[in-house]
Amino acid sequence: MRGSIVQAAVQGQVKKTLRHMDKTRKVSQRATVTALNKTGKKLMVPAKREIAQKTKLRAKDVTKRLRLRKATKRRPRAALGMLMRPIPWIQLGARELGGKKKKRGVRAGKYVDRDAFIASRPDQRNNPQVFKREGAPRLPVEVLKVELEDNAHQVLRRAVRGSTPIFRRFYSEQMQRWTKRKGK
Predict the structure, then answer these.
(1) Which of 9, 35, 93, 182 would you label with 64, given CA atoms 20 to 30 Å apart?
(2) Which conformational region is residue 99 in: left (phi greater than 0), alpha (psi within -120 to 50 degrees), or beta?
(3) According to the model, what pLDDT value does residue 37 have?
(4) What is the predicted pLDDT for the residue at 49?
(5) Helices 164-183 and 2-55 sit at what angle, rounded to 10 degrees?
(6) Could you count the other beta carbons within 10 Å of the beta carbon of residue 90?
(7) Rounded distance, CA 149 to CA 119, Å?
(8) ∠ CA(52), CA(58), CA(62), 5° rounding?
(9) Starting at the edge strand that comes first in sequence, how are the strands of the sheet with 106-108 ordered?
(10) Cα-Cα-Cα-Cα dihedral sign, residues 157, 143, 112, 95
């Protein structure tokens, strides 16, 4: 009879330990997901500022293109990315220069080009763009755009490489938070 009591006590302890391990696993999983998402958000700010500084754009224009794919319980990975298409000058609020001193050209943010002009293509009447001629002939014109690819890739890689201490801090905070909550 004593053997069955001991066996029942051991089985009860094993079940209790398994329940505790399951709760700990769930808490750890939840803390990991939250920490990953917070780390991603935290990395967006310095990355945005650095990209804006290198490309001479407003941070607002960079923010529109910066993306954070959040982590979930099923997919515990957060991804920081950016739309790398070039930004046309017209989206930066391009304005033609003018005045009494015969200033010509276009200004878009911190970019200025004296040979540029704003016009619409005949096939796209309601879509004005900033153009620049490439020579004497009438037709070879190009749309002026700001390239993002080189600068943005380097900045995002650097931001992700330095993210480990930030993640560790958020993870420990979240583990404390969730273990306190479970202890109540």
Answers:
(1) 35
(2) left
(3) 92
(4) 92
(5) 140
(6) 18
(7) 26
(8) 60
(9) 95-96, 106-108, 111-113
(10) negative
- Nearest CA to 127 out of 85, 91, 83 is that of 91
Are 111 and 86 a contacting pair, CB within 8 Å?
no
**pLDDT at 8 (0 to 100):** 57
Token code pair at residue 1 = 């009879």
How far apart CA 36 and CA 81 sit, in angstroms, is: 15
User: How many angstroms separate the CA atoms of 77 and 69, rounded?
Assistant: 8
* Cβ-contact 88, 81 below 8 angstroms: no
CB-CB contact of 35 with 170 (8 Å)? yes
Give residue-wise pLDDT tens across range 36-75: 999 999 999 999 999 889 888 888 888 888 999 999 989 9
Q: Determine the Cα–Cα distance for residues 140 and 120; give it in Å rounded to an integer.
A: 14
- Among 13-17, 30-34, 139-143, which stretch is predicted with the lowest mean pLDDT? 13-17
